[in-house]
Amino acid sequence: MFTFAVVPLALAASVLANVFLTSPVGTTTFTAGQTATVSWQDSGSAPSLAQFGNATFAIYVGNAIEQTPLQTIATYINVSTVNSVSFTPLAVIGPNSNEYFIRVTSQTLMNPSSPQYPEEAFSAKFTLAGMTGTFNSSVQAEINGQSTAPIGGPTGSASMTMATGTGTSAPTITTGTGSPATASPSSSSSSGAGKPVMATGLVVLVATLIGASFL
Fold it and tell me: Which of 42, 83, 103, 145 is most buried, with most CB under 10 Å away?
């Protein structure tokens, strides 16, 4: 049984953030219980990676209006000094599905268009296999809501459903030299994108999440 708290948000105008997620992409399949890697590079757009600073990485599902975090991958990751994070997907966070995406949230930089919200970046939607969980009715409704609130759709009022639960994943951090270092375990939110994309605003995803490319 999971406890949900709905937090009101506002969607900001979509602009390019600087964290360009190179993995996962639309053709990526991660398998539960096996090591998976999220990687990124500088997009060449302002702000700089150093300005983006420390960030939280998490697996999400949802639509342009509501999104639910399912598993926190890592926290306090300095995206300017590290370019990948390895973790183990938890099987219980949902079913086999291609509706998952990674959301990266800066812990230090606010969105210049809506300074009450942090700067963010998103991956393309990708697949998780070997899963044993299910999406509860609230999460499934958010996914179904893509028909009327498609990812990359118009901006407007939004809310985010926070699903809290148990389970942790201990990620490893890989630097540009390929040397791994163990990161502190991050707490996981539990219930239960291809060319990577970046977006800002707390819950804005751009059309590349559903197969389009901004390049």
Answer: 103
